[in-house]
Design goal:
The complex is a heterodimer of chains A (about 140) and B (about 210). By secondary structure, chain A is mainly α. Chain A is built from four helices and two strands; from the N terminus they run ααααββ. Chain A has a domain of about 55 residues. A two-stranded antiparallel ribbon of chain A has the order 1-2. In chain B, helix 2 packs parallel to helix 7. The chains are: A mainly alpha (about 140), B mainly alpha (about 210).
Amino acid sequence: MSGDAHAHDDPHFSAEKVFLALFVLTALEVTWGFVARDLGKLMLWGGLLFFAFWKGWFIAVYFMHLKFEGWVVKSLILPTPFLIMVIMGYVGNDVADKEAPLLHPIGSMLDPNTGVVHERLEEIWKPAHEGTASEGASEETHSGG
Amino acid sequence: MSHTLAAYDPAVDAPTHHHPVYDYDSGPPVERGKFAIWLFLATEVMFFSGLIGAYIVLRSAAASWPNPADRLAVGITAFNTFVLITSSWLMVRALFASKRGDRNGILFWLGLTILGGSLFVGIQAYEYVQLVHEGAIPRGDIFWSTFYIMTGFHGSHVVVGVVWLICVWFRALRGRYTAKNHLGVELAGLYWHFVDLVWVLLFTIVYLF
């Protein structure tokens, strides 16, 4: 083992300092997660995202050496934040308009035999040891399960 | 004195070490392995972005969402986060050792990294068992569905990472890595740091939001 002579293994950065920063940021983040819960969602989520961003930044830039890579590697990974924004943009389209009714409530179950949409899975299916399915379910549908 | 000009027979006449020499390299100016792993990681970024995007939709559309701290053991998972971050740092030390050509250093630091990853998986498995005993199953409600999908996929990535690191450890044991040839350690390390990075985000979103 070589625990001694590695004070300056990488001239670009100190792994110990980055590790310490990650450690402190995680401690602060967990504390913030409890302390800021009464301050409102904006403060809570804003703070948490701040801590998470910098932790991710330190890992990607220093531990993954992204800062010191050439243009090829950077050009591979840098478009992904843009694509994430595209995904989140489409997602935002779905969730932004709270007034627009969803086609089916989240978590609803479509009974393939009757076409009826149920609010909960338990309405059309129960584990075998709990007995038969309740009203609205067809025995044939789940006879194998 | 006369010479017989025989036909050129490459099987006989070609130099044994003959390789075509070009004054350019048609490949990208980076090792192929590193190019491949970064391309793979880019796809992984999109994979986890899709999961997180789905989580945002489901959570935003839900009539209400429980406080994660009421349902999940945030303390033990925070400790698990420290474990994974520490293993990431240990991985950096293993890479530094490989750059020095220090075989024993690789084995030591990589061994600790594997232990850290295994501990993370063990703690997550313990958490799952506890939750299932309490009746928290994936089809229970949308909170648990998203919880198990996101942490489960990440956990499977950690398992793959541990297996990969074990393979690298055995290769190091056989002396396959030198100061000039340590790309295998570096690639495994990139994947391991990525798994750590994803967990940093998932921990925030799933456990603290």
